Amino acid sequence: MNLYMVLSIIVLVGILVVAVLFGLQPLVKLTKPTSTAKEAEPFAAGEAVSFFTAKETNDYLVKDEDKYVTRLTAQDLSARGVSTTTEYLQVVATTGLTFSDKEKTTLRNAATKADEMLSQFYGLGVVGSKTQNIHWCFAKVGDAYENGLPHTRSNVIFVPVKVISYSHKELISTLIHEKVHLYQRLYPEDIQAYLEFAGYIQWKERQFYPLARSNPDIDPFVYIHPSTKQPMVALYASDTPKSISDVLVSSDYKNEHPYEEIAYAIATI
In angstroms, rounded to a whole number, what is the distance separating the alpha carbons of residues 130 and 126? Predict the structure, then answer.
């Protein structure tokens, strides 16, 4: 046996020893997929469904941590019957209400059914299994806040009094719609990948689009629809709208933004 063969054997044995000691780890480190699990933790913590008290709702609205009220335009304020953001914050400071036990039961039952239906869904940028990680957090409000329209802010679903009295089927549909908005906020990469694939064009920021209505459930951009080739935006009918619904676009809110179009489509499953 020559010296070269001896050295080769020594090197081979050395490689085997290292492999055993380190558990046969691959020489090339695989890139770990980007995860939003850490972001999802606040949504999944605690029980499956939770409810704000009136005080918790009022405190949340007054703090305006997401700056939704702060960013309202002069037209938005007119649609809410006020002149300044300070005035609107004073209005919403007392709009929070506490859920009755019966209302909690109604919402829990509807949320359970909504989760069951969503768990089987896949498409439009939404992976149904991921929706099961999103915690239901409800806040009850009167019509003085956002003209009594259901919507989400952060991880909270704001439920006007009239929504709780919807038929069971309609309530389930509404909750599915709102949970899709939570998903869009929590998993924006999924949604943006779908919008790009489907041919939606991110055109311009809404703040530069005259009379565009603010909506806490959508992102800051106006999109061009892949089929109609028209901008998706709800425009107030004048500089002094009388309500949030006082817009040029039809009452079919899905035309306002891709997020709304997706939420309405999934709510019909």
Answer: 8
What span, in angstroms and rounded, lies between the C-alpha atoms of 118 and 269? 8
The reply to whether 138 falls in a domain is yes
**Residue 176 forms part of a structural domain:** yes
Are 259 and 151 in contact, with CB atoms under 8 Å apart? no
Euclidean distance between CA atoms 205 and 113, whole angstroms: 37
Measured distance CA(36)–CA(34) in Å, rounded: 7
How many Å apart are CA 247 and CA 233, to the nearest integer? 10
Is 20 inside any structural domain?
Answer: no
Is the overall model pTM greater than 0.85, yes or no? no
d(CA 22, CA 164): 59
The per-residue DSSP string of 17-80 comes to: HHHHHTTT--SSPPPPPP--HHHHHHHHSSSSEEE--HHHHHHHHHH-TT-TTTT--HHHHHHT
Low-confidence ranges of the chain (pLDDT < 50): 1-46
Alpha-carbon distance 266 to 269, whole Å? 6
Q: State the total domains in the chain.
A: 1
Residues with Cβ within 8 Å of 237's Cβ and at least 6 positions away in sequence, in order, are: 246, 247, 248
CA-angle at 237, arms to 91 and 146, nearest 5°: 25
- Residue 221 to residue 259: CA distance in whole angstroms: 11
CA triplet 214, 233, 127: central angle to 5 degrees? Answer: 85
Enumerate residues 6+ apart whose C-beta is below 8 A from 208.
Answer: none
Asked whether the beta carbons of 211 and 239 are under 8 A apart, the reply is: yes
pLDDT at 265: 97
Q: What is the mean pLDDT of the chain?
A: 86
In a domain, 46, yes or no: yes
Domain carrying residue 179: 38-266
